[in-house]
Amino acid sequence: KGSSRVAVKCVASPSVEQTAYTTKVARNENLAKLQAGYLFPEIARKRAAHMLKYPDAKVIPLGIGDTTERIPEVITTAMAERAKALSTKKGYSGYGAEQGEKQLRAAIASTFYQNLGIEEDDIFVSDGAKSDISRLQVLFGSKVSMAVQDPSYPAYVDSSVILGQTGLYQKDVERFAKIEYMRCTPENDFFPDLSNVARTDIIFFCSPNNPTGSAASREQLTQLVQFAKDNGSIIVYDSAYAMYVSEDKPRSIFEIPGAEEVALEVSSFSKYAGFTGVRLGWTVVPKQLKYSDGFPVANDFNRIVCTAFNGASNIAQAGGLACLSPEGIKAMHEVVGFYKENTKIIMDTFNSLGFNVYGGVNAPYVWVHFPGRSSWEVFGEILEKTHVVTTPGSGFGPAGEGFVRVSAFGNRENVLEACKRFKELYK
Ligand code: MLT
């Protein structure tokens, strides 16, 4: 009932047809710069329209990278126990530390950053990497300049636009003014030619990459760290898919010597333990990372976290701690292994059909090339003819044009069925 004001016509003066009441608040001009809805809800809308058109079709979602496999029991048991304890006098807890529970911070540091110089108090536990990306934008403010890989996870660009770091969207080049787009294509092994990249304050870098699935090598990341050091830039490294790495490639930016002076890292339990709904992630901000005036970035990030967040759910944190027990780690590797098998099935399918296929080996995303074609057109063709939802590459940036991303997050039956339909369509 509270929303009954929406689109209600004013009938007070019948002679003048008035539209609904509006406030005197101007719309945030930065939000007005955004071109369309956020990519994934946009795709969900197209999927819903498709389902209306074909009510009997079995639609298979391989678009948004949403996990489908059950959370291992060792993890849900720990969450259930913590939840139950909340009903006891002894086990009840209210607000926790904004930065996360000490034990979980310590377990994250020792599991993912052993011998990399990262300590427990460098870890900030959160409700997920995506929320932290927006908190980081608030930290940096509207005056910084930004570089992103092109293509890249849309949250980096959209949050930058919302914060006011960019100019207007330029339709002719399909880019926002004042963002440096670092082109990543098969021609450069999906690693930007840094000699052609302008200096920016902040560099977003995701490896293994969403959407291309490529993982940067140690040499490439060493170049990136040196580039940041030469320019006095800060790298925001997104390692949400690190556990999918099977080749000898870094799983954290902090494997690169000196990175602690120029980088921070965001990561997540979502794609390892099926926590897309539970919500748990973390950000590493090393003490050595400083602003130009010598002030530690971590102190300001702590200030943002304490102002904007009351800490991750205590139940989710109990789950996170169970993830990092020896049984939990084993269980997470099994979950990751399952999705990696899906990835292989999808890659083999497109390879057998003669496509150039990228990614997949170190990431749960397969990046399929449709040279000379529009990504949205191919997305539409696949949806119309196979009822499989994918993601158009151009939704991740102009360099994604001509590609389609196929997510390996799906149950086996669906992935096999989708691949059968791909074979029928493109034989
Ligand atoms: C994706 O499909 O790119 C993922 O859902 C990204 C995310 O984790 O938000």
From TrEMBL:
Task: List the transmembrane segments.
Answer: none
Which GO terms of the molecular function aspect are on file? Answer: pyridoxal phosphate binding; transaminase activity
| Keyword annotations from UniProtKB, A to Z | Aminotransferase, Pyridoxal phosphate, Transferase
CDD domains (UniProt xref): AAT_like (cd00609)
Tell me which residues make up the Aminotransferase class I/classII large domain.
Answer: 58-422
User: Is Ribosomal protein found in the keyword set?
Assistant: no
Q: Which cofactor does it need?
A: pyridoxal 5'-phosphate
Highest rank taxon of the organism: Eukaryota
Put simply, this protein is called OLC1v1033306C4
- Give the organism the record lists: Oldenlandia corymbosa var. corymbosa
State the taxonomy lineage: Eukaryota, Viridiplantae, Streptophyta, Embryophyta, Tracheophyta
